[in-house]
Amino acid sequence: MTGYVEGFEGPYCRIEVDGNIQAVPREQVDPQVKAGDAVELKDGKWVTDPAATKRRTDEIKKLMDDVWES
Q: Which InterPro entries does this one have (predicted)?
């Protein structure tokens, strides 16, 4: 399962999965995960997927560049 970290609120991490936001207890999230990361669920813990995070970051940057060039 893959998701995107929207941010943190108190004891929860907000992760978007299939368009729905889930409030996941922080103890189920690797401490190195940060907002904006693409994450995947491995052995019951959400961990960063560096390749997916880079692809998403590059895609968002390209979209932003296209908007500002118009």
A: DUF3006
The torsion defined by the Cα of 22, 40, 29 and 17, in degrees rounded to 10, comes to -10
Please tell me the predicted confidence (pLDDT) of residue 38: 98
**Domain assignment of residue 37, given as a range:** 2-69
């978007």: which residue's tokens? 16
- CATH number assigned to the domain comprising residue 51: 2.40.50.140
Q: Is the pTM of this model over 0.90?
A: no
Q: With 0-12 CB in 10 A as exposed, 13-18 as middle and 19+ as buried, what is 5? A: buried
Structure tokens at 2: 């893959």
User: For position 70, what pLDDT does the model report?
Assistant: 61
